[in-house]
């Protein structure tokens, strides 16, 4: 298919997303990166090409092109015009009201129900990866996603697979490097509801990924439920945010929860579009205003154990029973874990944005 690249509409850690038009005049979005750096993209392309749901960004194909001396991998997708859920939160003054939260949650849950029924774990559900279209929310960015066996087919051994995502949205079993299956997306959904309700991180006093992982793995805490939410909304959250993945509700159960029944009076974004091009700075804007060192949690730790990322990780590894080796590569952090002297094949790929 011949197509022409238009203006840039978004940038991720590795990709530039542009609007594009085909010769026949169809408009779509094209996400491009250098072929040599396209490992996650190719995974995304393979997964996206198998999916078809109104609650998941639509697949339109892929191609490889040469731009000056650079070979580019291009992933073509449905153009979703109103930015991300984080843009919507900004647009509505920093947080969404409960009717909007239930509207978008309903669509994300239906998207997750569909994905999980096909054996896909998204692995990076968060506001930045939810796009807002004419009909509402669509799940996007499948760069971390993986296919696992469905409950009917049996379990895969996640110790063989890489697991990862964004620390603030990571379920306890993921942060510990144990497994990342369907319940991990449900935990991240709970975190995304808090993001919609507060405009901030589920762990608002912590900004460094290491501190967040430390808190998730070493405490028995849950993210704080926003006080202004109704009992129904809090009950819904309590079904998502359970530390034991086996106790979390499935997407199939959650679609029937009473919180999602009240969908009247929803303000749609269709005629009131978000025009600002979304950038990665949004996450920083929201979340970095509170320094973790100012929190009582860290103030009580007057020893030097948590002074640097490496020292914090040493502490984390002592608590978790694993030795952890961190590798900073661009904006991604890879954590490899060892159990006694046996190298575990699991590594945790962390989206640091
Ligand atoms: N289909 C689309 N339609 C409209 N805008 C899009 C579309 N896909 C992506 N975008 C915009 O481009 C931005 C970057 O896209 P995406 O998150 O998929 O890139 P990424 O490099 O995988 O991101 P990350 O940094 O999370 O890995 C999104 O936040 C969004 O604003």
Automatic annotation (TrEMBL):
InterPro entries: Kinase-like_dom_sf, Plant_MAPKKK, Prot_kinase_dom, Protein_kinase_ATP_BS, Ser/Thr_kinase_AS. ATP binds at residue 31. It comes from the Eukaryota. PROSITE patterns: PROTEIN_KINASE_ATP (PS00107), PROTEIN_KINASE_DOM (PS50011), PROTEIN_KINASE_ST (PS00108). One of its GO terms (molecular function) is ATP binding. Keywords: ATP-binding, Kinase, Nucleotide-binding, Serine/threonine-protein kinase, Transferase. Residues 3-260 form the Protein kinase domain. The keyword Kinase applies. Belongs to the protein kinase superfamily. This is Mitogen-activated protein kinase kinase kinase 17. It comes from Abeliophyllum distichum.
């Amino acid at each position: 298919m011949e197509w022409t690249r238009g203006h840039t509409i978004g940038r991720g850690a590795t990709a530039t997303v542009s609007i594009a038009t085909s010769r026949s005049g169809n408009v779509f979005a094209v996400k491009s990166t250098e072929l040599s750096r396209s490992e996650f993209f190719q995974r995304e392309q393979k997964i996206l090409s198998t999916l078809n749901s109104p609650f998941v960004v639509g697949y339109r194909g892929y191609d490889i092109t040469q731009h000056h001396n650079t070979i580019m991998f291009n992933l073509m997708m449905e153009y979703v015009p109103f930015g991300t859920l984080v843009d919507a939160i900004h647009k509505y003054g920093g947080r969404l009201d409960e009717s909007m939260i239930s509207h978008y949650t309903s669509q994300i849950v239906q998207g997750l129900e569909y994905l999980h029924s096909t054996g896909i774990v998204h692995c990076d559900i968060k506001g930045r990866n939810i796009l807002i279209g004419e009909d509402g929310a669509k799940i996007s960015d499948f760069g971390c996603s993986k296919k696992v066996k469905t409950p009917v087919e049996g379990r895969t051994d996640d110790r063989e697979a890489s697991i990862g995502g964004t620390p603030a949205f990571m379920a306890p079993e993921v942060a510990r490097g144990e497994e990342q299956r369907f319940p991990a997306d449900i935990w991240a959904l709970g975190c995304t509801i808090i993001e919609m309700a507060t405009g901030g991180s589920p762990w608002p006093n912590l900004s460094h990924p290491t501190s967040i992982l430390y808190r998730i793995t070493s405490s028995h805490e849950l993210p704080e439920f926003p006080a202004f939410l109704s009992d129904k909304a809090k009950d819904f959250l309590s079904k998502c945010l359970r530390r034991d993945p086996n106790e979390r509700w499935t997407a199939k159960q959650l679609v029937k929860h009473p919180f999602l029944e009240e969908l009247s009076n929803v303000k749609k974004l269709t005629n009131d579009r978000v025009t600002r091009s979304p950038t990665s700075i949004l996450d920083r804007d929201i979340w970095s205003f509170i320094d973790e060192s100012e929190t009582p949690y860290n103030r009580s730790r007057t020893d030097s154990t948590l002074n640097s990322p490496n020292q914090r990780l040493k502490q984390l590894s002592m608590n978790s029973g694993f030795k952890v080796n961190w590798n900073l590569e661009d904006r991604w952090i890879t954590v490899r874990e060892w159990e006694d002297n046996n190298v575990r094949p699991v590594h945790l790929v962390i989206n640091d944005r």
